[in-house]
Amino acid sequence: MKKYSSIIYSLIIVFFLLILAYPLSKIFYLAFKTNTGINFSNFSDIFKDSIVMQGVTNSFILALGVAICSTIIGFIIGYTRNFLHIPQWYKNFLEIFANFPMFLPTIVYGFALIYIFGRQGILTQLMGGKTIITVFGPQGVFLGLLIYTIPVSFMLINDSMKYIDSKLFVVSKLMGDNSLKQFVTCLIRPLRSTIILSFIQCFFLSFTDFGLPTALAGNYPLLSTSLYIKMLGAIPDFAHGSVVALLMLLPTIVTTIIMVILQKYNTKQQIKSSLVVTSGRITKMVYSTISATLLLSIVLIFIPIFIVPFVSVYPYNMSFTFQHFSDVFSDFTVTDVIQTSLILSLLTAFFGTLLALTSAYLASRSSIANQVSKVMNFISNVTNAVPGMVLGIALMIAVSGTGFQYTLTILIMANCVHLFATPFSMANGAFHKLSANLEKTSELMGDNFIKTIFRVVLPNIRQTIFEMMNYLFVNSMVTISAIIFLVGVNTSTITTKMKELQNFNRYDQVFVLALVLFSINFVMKYIFYILGNLSFHKKIKIRQ
Fold first, then answer.
1. Using an 8 Å Cβ cutoff, are 58 and 221 in contact?
2. For the chain, give me the number of helices (H) and strands (E)?
C-alpha cells in the first residue's frame, strides 16, 4: 500500500506544481523582465506611481481596522453563543445569521450598501435625506469588508470555543480568581492562537478583496483595483501588473510563517462540558443584545436584494412587478451563465473534496504520513495565503495561448487550489478524531484497503464530507477574484455577469441574479445538511 500512497502523493504534488508553483513563477519572471533584460526597473516604476503606493497604504490601513473590529465582534457573538445560558433557538439564530453574508458575493455587498446608505437609499430616506456615511470611499468599503469578514471570524472562534471546557471557570472561581482573571485564564489564553488566526484571516481577506472595491471604492485607490486596472484595463500592462501582484503577495509570506508557528501551539481538542458559565443578568442581556443587534443590522443591509427586483423603479416607483426578472431571463446568455455556475460549483465540490480528502488522508493516516504531513500543511497554508486575484492572474498568464484558456477545466482547477485550505483542514481534523486502529482492525477482519476506506473510514466522516462539499460549492458560486481573469464568453459565471451589468448601471438586474444565487446556495446548503445528517443518523442506528 505504501507504493500506491507514494504514487498518489506524487500526483498531488505535480498538480500543485503545475497549477500553483509554475503560474506564480511566471509572475515573478514578468515582474523582472524588461526590454533591456532582467532588472528592477518595473519595480522602480511602480514605486514611483503615487496612485499604486497610495493604494497599498489605504489597503493596509483598511485591512488592519477591519481585522481588529471583525475579531472583536466574532468573539462577542461566539461568547454569547457558547458560554451564556440562552435558549437553543437563540443560539441557532446567532449561528444562522452570522453565516448569512457567506451566501452572496462581496460585489453584491457593495450594491446593497448603495441602496441602503446612498443618496436615494432606504435609510437615507428614513433619515429625511441625511446621509449617515459616505458610501463611495473608505467608509463604505470598510463597512462592506466588516460584513464580509465577521462570518469568517465567528466561524473560527465559534469552532474553537466548542472545545473549551466550561468547568475551567468553576475551578478558577474556587481558586479565588476574580472575573477578569477567570476571563483571561480560562478563555483568552486557550483561544489566543485562534484569535491571532482570525485577525490574520480577516486582514488578508480585506487586503486582497476585489468585489467590494470595484463597487464602492470610486476614486479611493486600493491595491486590488490597481491590479485589476493594470491587468484588464484599456491597455493591459502585464509587467507592471505582475509587480503589483507581488506587492499583494507580500502578506502571504508573513501569514504563512505565522500560521506554521501557530500550528505548534495547537492543543488536542476535548469534548466540552455541558455546564454553562454562570453569568449575571446584566452581562447576559448586554452580550445578547449586542450580538443580536449586530447580526440583524448586517442582515437588514441586504434587504434591497429582496425588494429591488420586485419594484418598478426604486425608489421612485415602488409598484410590484416581475419585469426585471423578465428582462434578465430574456437574455439567453443568462440561462447559460447560471448553468455554467452550477456545473462549475458542483464539479468544484466533487473534485475539491476528493483532492482535500486524499491529501488529508495521506497526511494523517497513510503509511507515509510522517513524510507527507509537513509538506501538505505547507501547501495548505500557501493556498490559504495566496490571494485569489494573484492566482487568477498567474493562471491566466500560464495558460495563455493553450487549449486550457477560457475553459471550464481551468476554472475548476483554480477553484480547487484557491479553496483547498479549509476543506483540507476539515478533513485532516476529522481523520485525526478517528481511532488510529481502524485500518489495522479492518485488515485483521479480512477487508482489503479499498473496502476499509469505503466501508469504515468514509462512513465515519460523512458529515464532514458533506460540509466540505457545501463549503466548496457555496464559495465557488460566490467567488469572483480568482476567476475574473480566467472566464471567457462561454464560461461566464453569475458573479462575472454581475460585474458586466454593473458597467451598464443595471443594478436591478444585478439584484435579480443575486437573489437567484442566494436561493441556489440556500437550497444546496440545506440539501448537503440533510444528506450529511441522514448519513450520520443511519450510521448511529446501525451501531445500536
1. yes
2. 27, 4
Whether the CB-CB separation of 440 and 376 falls below 8 Å is answered with no
| Triad 123, 129, 134: Cα angle to 5° | 70
Please return the burial class of 168, using the count of CB atoms within 10 Å of its CB with bins 0-12, 13-18 and 19+: middle
Alpha helices in 388-506 (DSSP H): 388-399, 408-418, 421-433, 438-444, 449-452, 462-478, 494-503
- Full DSSP string of 210-254: -HHHHHHTTTS--HHHHHHHHHHSSS--HHHHHHHHHHHHHHHHH
Query: Residue range 518-526: average pLDDT?
Result: 93
Q: Among 96, 68, 66, which residue's Cα sits nearest to residue 158?
A: 96
User: 311 - beta bridge partners?
Assistant: 320
Distances (CA, A) of 61 to 140, 209, 226: 14, 14, 16
C-alpha cell at 333: 446568455
Tell me the pTM: 0.86
Digit-coded pLDDT (tens) for 11-55: 999 999 999 999 999 999 999 998 888 889 999 999 999 999 999
Q: Give the amino acid at 104.
A: L
Cα separation, 420 vs 20, in Å, equals 12
Indicate the residue type of 381.
N
CA-wise closest residue to 420 among 462, 472, 465 = 472
User: In the structure grid, which three cell numbers stand for residue 269, read together?
Assistant: 481538542
Residue 315 sits at φ, ψ, to 5 deg, of -100, 15
CB atoms within 10 A of CB 273: 13
173 vs 147, residue with greater confidence: 147
The three-class DSSP label of residue 38 is strand
pLDDT in tens, 115-166: 899 888 888 888 887 888 888 999 999 999 999 999 989 988 887 787 776 6
- Tell how strand 33-34 and strand 311-313 pair up: unpaired
Q: With contact defined as beta carbons under 8 Å apart, do 416 and 352 qualify?
A: yes
On the CB side of 333, CA atoms within 13 Å amount to 12
